[in-house]
Design goal:
Helix content is about 45%, strand content about 15%. The protein is an alpha/beta fold. Helix 2 packs parallel to helix 10. The two termini are about 30 Å apart.
Length: about 300
């Protein structure tokens, strides 16, 4: 089971995590009717991830999946898990952040949360107040890391400035080998300031799981050099081969897919292979699939 140090600290995490966002209709039904469709399959997918060596789980109060995570982690040593969740912008006040934390901790069945994140941008004043509450939670030992999500560079810098005693440990962004716009600004800033990145949509909604998406030459080269690898494994490995502070979090909804994704760990592409993959994705129908796919 491969492990790396998260944010250069003692807690070890798998270089590939799992996400638990499904879709707006699933969330609406779960929130309004309290019905979580395909609950058993989704819990089994999370447990499959844990059994495959993945210990990094990302959720959010918005997703309505915290109870599924609670069910899935039953029987596992809490200290072996890294659990991240998020607070909604509508709760960006001092009191509401603390209430949201308590509700999320109860839903997850945990006493502390490893990474607590502001889910989206808001006004600077609301972000500042929310971060003040997060620092209080840090001082109380209830959260281990403060994070942000979907913040542009200016908001990221401001969030860092607002913190008085602690630092931003992680940001979460839409990032994959076909959607690399954050390499212009967010990536350099995070590298310089020791901020980890959680990459959601790492397979670009499934668009990056066909041979047409990267070219057969890439697949043949990787397989020759590293043994049989599937396309999702290659695409996910790109993150951990190129960066030591970026963690892809593919969605966990199908146990078979989760088991396959775990095969992205335990090996690394070299620089030539990384470049070959990037060039193939940029040149082979990328403009058609992704529109403006700034690299």
């Amino acid at each position: 089971m491969e492990r790396v140090k998260f944010n250069n600290e003692d807690k070890s995490v798998s270089p590939v995590g799992i996400g638990t966002y499904y879709d707006p209709s699933w969330i609406a039904v779960a929130k309004i009717l309290k019905i979580r469709k395909s609950r058993k399959q989704k819990v089994d997918a999370i447990r499959t991830a844990l059994g495959s060596g993945i210990n990094f789980i990302d959720t959010a109060e918005m997703y309505q999946t915290e109870p599924l995570v609670r069910e899935a982690i039953q029987g596992y040593n809490r200290e072996d898990l890294f659990i991240a969740t998020k607070v909604l912008p509508t709760h960006y006040s001092y009191e509401k952040v603390i209430k949201s934390f308590n509700r999320s901790a109860k839903n997850l069945g945990v006493k502390y949360i490893d990474l607590y994140q502001l889910h989206m941008q808001s006004s600077y004043s609301k972000i500042q107040e929310a971060l003040r509450a997060m620092e209080y939670l840090m001082d109380q030992g209830k959260i281990r890391h403060i994070g942000i999500s979907n913040f542009d560079l200016d908001h990221t810098k401001k969030a860092s400035e607002f913190l008085k005693k602690h630092e931003i440990s992680a940001t979460q962004m839409n990032f994959n080998v076909a959607h690399r716009n954050i390499e212009k600004d967010i990536i350099p800033y995070c590298k310089e300031n020791g901020i980890s990145i959680l990459a959601y949509f790492p397979l670009s909604h499934g668009k990056l799981v066909t041979s047409e998406g990267m070219g057969k030459e890439v697949i043949e080269t990787i397989t020759k050099n590293h043994g049989p690898k599937t396309i999702p494994q290659i695409v996910l490995n790109w993150f951990i081969s190129k960066y030591d502070f970026v963690y892809p979090i593919p969605r966990a909804s199908n146990p078979q897919h989760v088991r396959e994704n775990s095969g992205a760990m335990g090996w690394r592409m070299n620089e030539d292979e990384i470049r070959m993959l990037e060039d193939a994705v940029s040149n082979v129908k990328a403009a058609t699939w992704f529109g403006d796919h700034t690299t």
